[in-house]
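Support case: user asked for a sample of complex input and structure output to validate their parser. Sending the pair below.
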Amino acid sequence: MTILKKLLKNPTSLIGIVILTLYAIMAIGAPYFAPIPENARDPYMIPRDGFSTTPNPPSEEHRFGTTEGQYDIYYGVVWGARTAFRIGVVITLITTIVGVLIGSLSGFYGGWVDELLMRFTEIFQAFPFLLAAITLTSVLQTVYGRGEANGLVFMAKIVAFLTFGQNPAEKIDPVQLQVLTGMLAIIFFGWMGIARVMRGNILAVKESEYATAAQIIGAGNMRILFRHLLPNAVFPILVIASMNIGSYVLTFAALSFLGLGAQRGYADWGQMISFARNWVPSLGEYWYIVVFPGVAIVLFVLAWNLVGDALRDILDPRLRGSGSV
Amino acid sequence: MQKKILDVKGLETRFRTDEGVVHAINGVSFEVNEGETVGIVGESGCGKSVTMLSVLRLIPMPPGVISAGSAEFYEQDLLKLSEKEMQSVRGAQIAMIFQDPMTSLNPVLTIGKQLTEPMLLHLSISEEEADRRAVELLEMVGISEAEGRLKDYPHQFSGGMRQRVMIAMALSCNPKVLIADEPTTALDVTIQAQFVDLVKRLQADLGMAIIWITHDLGVIAGLAQRMMVMYGGLFIEEADVKELYANPQHPYTVGLLGSLPRLDGKHAERLVSIDGLPPVLYAPPTSCPFAPRCEFVVEKCLEENPALEEVAPNHKVACWVDIATGRMK
């Protein structure tokens, strides 16, 4: 409660929270702001008005204009907010849980468990993040297309359930599939930072007297770790997680821009910007194909960073006033 | 003859460090009878806490190893129990409280949650019943409005109050032995006296045995029946309280007592200090570990470590020298 109050009092985080609230309203009210056209195959597929390659400027009918292929930019920006929240929150949720678990076990048990888990973490860290995500996305798509690799399908179904509420018993919707593979790729290479920070935090609280006190009353290892240590070590993770939401959306946009994230025509900001690739020399004329989805991404990421930054200042008084780490 | 409940024999604990193997406990033997209070004194780093943590098997392993000895609790060797069995002893049969009440309570859990935890772990009772008992326990240790305070967090309690909560928690399952590891060190002198009175009263009511670790010879004098003096991971003197204070036989004990300010002295005396620091033993002691700091040191002290020997009824000392004469015994 007090944390929320402080967040609302702090001007930076207040700006962030206001922006995020607006985005949330946009995402929740998407069918109202940008009604789903009749006969739409999927509400997340941006409606097209013809097949002409030349973008068209903002007009009565298309408030933000249309991109190459006549996809409606306004519709895409509005519905893209839903995609951004879903992608950001679900990736962050999964990477945070995985990171917290691996980091906690590593720090708590130490010894060979620590050695094993941390070397495993380092292997993942050794890959350049974006490059690894790009490679994995293309691999995942091929593998899934061939109907192989049950482990990956299982993971994709979990992510599909968390992101779209998709019934795991049913086949994954092909429209969602490409989004899911992009998300899986980011999840695969996104949990290591959290794991390392969590390991350090657990190492610190493990030495505290209340940890020994918990042993002395006869509590078992799992109880000590999850009831006594974890709640004391997990707070700094909240800060990282809130900042991660923004940066995962950005990474996903990068994948989409390269044609590996959301499929063509999907309401995703990064995907929409990829329509501008062919028009880079004449962006002066066709500015609207970049500016609207671009501003949407920038503000979204900025808002999460503002909140995360303020959250860190509030949770860690030692950093107050220094502004950066 | 009182019933012996804890019988530790030849306990040895080692720590493997980068600098070498530290011989923290070097063959310690002691026993605790039902309902009695035993004091263990010695300066920091001489192995008091490690002895107790070894008995409870709570030294970090690795680097720690209990390399020899036995610790029989009701004829059951604690050092041979499985970890699961050990967990059912800790908190239920043997409880422990620590020096610093400010850090030994978990800051993110309410007092009620922490107080009921051992009961829920060890006694098969419902949460409501545990809550009810928690209120009784808090009242027993003298915390008023106990019911409302169960929802409070540790930072809303003062140091003395927290130590009371700690002892309430330790006694919640009616343990047979309470180990108190310097419980008064972090408290104000006035609060110390209150706390000692509280412990005495609780012991009279509940009848548990207490092992009281301290370096404060003043506090322990009014509390313990038997005292053991520890140095370099060994017991070097063991006697009834009155005997030890009246007739200390080991030069280290004499030094410890000499460093205490006294109010009943005839005239102002200088406080005596013992020069030097306790040794860190990288090998088992082959000479008396106190020899480098001892004013009575003779050649024999550097050649062989003296064993505990009875010099008077219920009074054992490990020293080659008779300090009354300053010569070899």
